[in-house]
């Protein structure tokens, strides 16, 4: 409602008079005097509470200076009208929640590359003897000439060694006379023991570079990963076997000679893995 359409203060005062006095003409001076009298007798607060309402206040005319501190609350304002306060300090960390259920197992990844050969483990104990008093011992030598598995008690004395040249002056060198062999210390006298050696396949090593490692190449001697020759014997057999490396020409040592299928000496590019089994009391070596 505009100020021009509101009843005048004199009209509103007249409406509050008793019926017998409403015929009295209220002049502006009378109205001011009446307001002053009421204000003086009851205070401006009582007058405002009784006479001033929302229709008496012009919209937009009341400022923050006119509002008593602490008299307004959040619900007195429209939604989102009050500005947000500063961010409070981070609260204390709550307790850890329970572990969730395990997720599904992922797909198996590709096989990694073969790692380097580990160091040779300590010598194991000698196995028990059989009912006939015999024992069976064994060891596995890899392509480098190292023992990689065994029943216990074996140690490599020399693997494919190049020895000092002992040939007479002017003769060809004999430094490679033991280079095709592996010499093993058995840790005990092997006299009267049986010695069996066999080539062990290695189908993850392409020894001849033909791309075939499944043992099915068509031509003869084309599968060195599976094939080869091997011989083994006790050292120090008088008139039969003499072992060249120092300290090996006795009954506590044996010599194993892996060869290619044509009998030629293996090299560092095509050496063989092999097993050796020794049975005490089963075969007399001589």
Quickly list its features.
286 residues; alpha+beta; four-stranded antiparallel sheet; 11% helix; rod-shaped; disordered C terminus
Class computed from helices, strands and strand pairing: alpha+beta
Order of neighbouring strands in the sheet with most strands: 2-1-8-5
Report Rg. 56 Å
Number of strands: 8
Overall pLDDT score: 81
Largest sheet: 4 strands, antiparallel
Helix content: 10-25%
Give, in order, the helices and strands. HHEEEEEEEE
What is the end-to-end distance? Answer: 135 Å
What does this structure look like?
It is a single chain. This protein is an alpha+beta fold and 286 residues long. The chain contains 2 helices and 8 strands, in the order ααββββββββ. The chain has helices spanning 9-15, 28-51; strands at 136-141, 147-150, 155-159, 182-185, 193-200, 229-234, 253-259, 273-280. Strands 2-1-8-5 form a 4-stranded antiparallel beta sheet, with no helix packed on it. Strands 3-4-7-6 form a 4-stranded antiparallel beta sheet, with no helix packed on it. A hairpin with a 5-residue loop joins strand 1 and strand 2 (147-150). The chain is rod-shaped.
């Amino acid at each position: 409602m505009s100020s021009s359409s509101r009843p005048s203060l004199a009209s509103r005062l007249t409406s509050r008079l008793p019926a017998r006095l409403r015929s009295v003409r209220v002049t502006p001076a009378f109205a001011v005097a009446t307001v002053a009298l009421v204000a003086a007798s009851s205070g401006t607060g009582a007058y405002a509470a009784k006479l001033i309402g929302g229709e008496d206040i012009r919209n937009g005319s009341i400022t923050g200076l006119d509002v008593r501190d602490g008299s307004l609350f959040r619900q007195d304002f429209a939604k989102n009208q009050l500005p947000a306060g500063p961010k409070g300090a981070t609260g204390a960390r709550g307790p850890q929640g329970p572990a969730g259920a395990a997720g599904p197992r992922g797909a198996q990844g590709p096989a990694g590359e073969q790692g380097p050969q580990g160091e040779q483990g300590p010598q194991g104990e000698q196995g028990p003897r059989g009912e006939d008093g015999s024992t069976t011992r064994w060891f596995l030598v890899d392509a480098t000439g190292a023992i990689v598995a065994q029943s216990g008690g074996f140690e490599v004395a020399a693997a494919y060694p190049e020895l000092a040249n002992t040939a007479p002056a002017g003769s060809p060198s004999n430094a490679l006379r033991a280079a095709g062999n592996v010499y093993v210390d058995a840790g005990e006298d092997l006299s009267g023991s049986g010695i069996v050696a066999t080539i062990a396949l290695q189908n993850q090593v392409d020894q001849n570079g033909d791309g075939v490692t499944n043992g099915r190449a068509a031509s003869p001697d084309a599968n060195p990963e599976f094939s080869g020759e091997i011989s083994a014997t006790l050292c120090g057999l008088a008139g039969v076997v003499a072992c060249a490396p120092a300290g090996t020409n006795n009954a506590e040592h044996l010599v194993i000679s892996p060869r290619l299928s044509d009998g030629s000496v293996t090299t560092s590019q095509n050496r063989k893995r092999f097993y050796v089994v020794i049975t005490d009391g089963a075969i007399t070596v001589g």
